[in-house]
Each structure stands twice: as C-alpha cells, then as structure tokens.
Amino acid sequence: TMLGVITTDALVTSDVWRKMVRVAVNRSFNQITVDGDTSTNDCVIALASGLSGANKISSLNNSDAEHLQACLDAVMQGLAKSIAWDGEGATCLIEVKVSGAGTEADAAKVARSVASSSLTKAAVYGRDPNWGRIACAAGYAGIPFNPNKLRISLGDILLMESGQPLPFDRAAASNYLRTTGEKHGTVIIQISIGDGLGSGQAWGCDLSYDYVKINAEYTT
Amino acid sequence: VVSAQQDVSNYIPAAPILLPEGPWHQVPGGVAAAKGFKAAGMYGGLRAVGEKPDLALVTCDVDAISAGAFTTNVVAAAPVLYCKEALETSTTARAILINAGQANAATGDAGYQDVIDCSHALAELLQLKPEQVLIESTGVIGQRIKKEPLLKSLPDLVNLLSSTVQGADSAAVAITTTDLVSKSIAIESEVGGTRVRVGGMAKGSGMIHPNMA
User: Fold this and answer.
1) Which of helix, strand or coil describes residue A2?
2) Which residue of A has its CA nearest to B189?
3) In this predicted complex, what is the ipTM?
4) Are the CB atoms for B98 and B137 separated by under 8 Å?
5) For the segment B97-142, what is each residue's pLDDT rounded down to a tens digit?
6) Which of A183, B80, B164, B170 lies 20 to 30 Å (CA to CA) from residue B157?
C-alpha cells in the first residue's frame, strides 16, 4: 500500500485544486510500480490552507497555476520515486523515460509497462543488459508504434536503434547495472518509440530474491 | 504531561531525496512546512511487533481546500470509502488521521463503523465536524484496526501536534509498514511573487502498483 499526504499554503479554489492533484497523481504515484499489486488502501489526500498570502488561483490557464502545478508534480514525484527506491528487496531505483509517443498518456503507459515487467526487473537484478525484455515490455504496453522506430538505451549505452539491435560493450553495460545497484542508485532506461511529441516516465525497482522472502512471511 | 516528541531517526532513516529540478528549493518540515499545518506521530499500540510510532495526525488551523485520489481496486478499504464520501460532502477538511498496522480492508460493515467511530472521536477532541476529519490506514488486509488503543491515544496525539520538523518526521515514520526509510519532502517557490510552500509525506514498499482516480 502507498499512502500520501500533501499540504500547501497556496490559495486555490476547490475545483482547480482537485484537477491539479489529479494531474500530479497521474504524473507521479500512478507511474510507480514495485510488484504489480494494486492495494485496497492506496490514497493521496492533499490540503491547501491558503495562508501564504498569495493571489487566489481560480483557473488552470495562467502562469501561477502552471507554476503551482509544477511544484505539486515535483513533490509528488519526489515522494513517488522514494517509494519505488524503497521497493521490497530492491537494490536500485529504475527510471524509465519514454519519448516519441503520440501523447503524454501513451508514453506514460509504455514507460509503466517496462517498469512493471518482472523479466526486466529480474534482469536488472541479475545485472543483465537485456534489451530484448525491454523491447518486449514496450511492445505489449497496448500502445501501437512502428517497431522500426524503437530506440533503447541503458544509462548512456545505446542498445537498439531504429529497431535494430546494436553491438555494445556488454561488460560495460553490466558493470553500469552492478555499480548502480551497489550504491542503491538509479538505473536509467531511455526508450524512443517514434517521432511524436509525447513523453513520460515511470519508476520501479529490480526484482530480488528478498522480495519473495519478505512476502512469503508477511501474511494477512 | 505528554513526553516531548521522540527522535524518530533511530527507528528508520529518511529516504534520499529524489526531487526533480525546477524553480524551487527544498525546505525542512515535510507536511508541516506550509503555513497552517501541524503534524505528530506516536506509538499507539497498534503495530503487531515493536514500538515504532504507528499513529499519525496532520491538522490545518483553517478549513483547508481538500482533494484526494483513491485506489480503483474494487475491494476498497473502509477508510477509502469513508474519505470518498467525505470529499463528496465537503470541499474542505481540517485533519487527517493515519494508522499503520491494520489496513481495515475487507472488514465489512464493522470496519466501516470503526472508521466512523475514530473520525467522530477525533472531531470531538478537535471540535470539528466529523466530515472534516479524513482517515488513511495501512497494514494487514482483513484485520480491523485496534480501535481501543487508537481511541485511547488520541488525546496524547493531539497534544503532540507541532509545526516543527520533528512533528513532521514523527508522522512520516508513523505511517510506514515494511518501509526501510521514511519519505518526507517540502519545497518553497515564488508563485505570483509570493513565497508558497508545498510539502508531503508518503509510505510504501510492497503491494505497489497504484491506479488511483
């Protein structure tokens, strides 16, 4: 289960605040995954006191609203990433960035599909730069794209370009995964699926033996 | 006299901050950083094992504009059903009570009544309307909350409320379950020429694939 509590002293009307929170949740908490299980209790509650003395924000279409939205996105993304970073048994955070999609929502869906893939997560834990599993998870996300436009990189190592697998330094790629895991850092997977303007990201973690151990013992 | 806020860092450390870059800077204080908010966390005897804080409270001095996003899992927990109802009823709220240990999910009518009893008890203590008190729970699915120890702890929890960093940190630890770190962030930025703060806390480590709406 994830729980979230967000507070601000911005002055904002109810309908604008509710819309802002929904957008921010979709860009953050709804883009993380550890094990693919959606809890019975997940919830985020956000309260705005209005005590900052700032001007009232009563519309989404102005710079103040866009600025507050960006702040809200940042706080929720910061918290959402720390949940994925702390995934049960995890040795690293996995950040999946997708670009070239038709819309932000399409890109987000592909990103989350890859972040949710048990085989991709297990490969990261095994320090295996398994671009095939990444391509596969992007392919079953339910978003149509031209596979000949698929581009995949791991950190700054290009693994696939224009749908063609590239020769790459496997030892260096595996070492990137290992050193990142050793410091509980962030593994970056970048994917492009076309020429569209839509981009999005998702966060997950690697799948270790400990995940099974922890959850074999934690019972209802 | 309620003991001063314990130093919660000896329970679990804070998560590394993974805040995106932008026209803001990080400030301490998590959920209590923004003006008007107070927080507290304490051990209320709800956890199955150990004495890590397990009860958190966040309050606002004024009627705060409220918003929420909730699981789309059909087997939604009693506090989720209660909060959705409360947000339908009122556009503002004043307090959020959070317990760890029991999820109060799949607990039927009795579980829903437990949420009502807790919100009413806290509302009475804070002299609020019950629908201004929102509730979140996390822990074992199928178990009702340990209501007696929870209700007994409320006066102490209210007395611990503070707008200090420690108050916010205690609350962030109290909402954790299998987490290895607590998660708390706050930022400050200029919105329309005025300094505005946005803060938050979260928990989560397992059963994580949120689909909230």
Assistant:
1) coil
2) A71
3) 0.97
4) yes
5) 999 999 999 999 999 999 999 999 999 999 999 999 999 999 999 9
6) B80
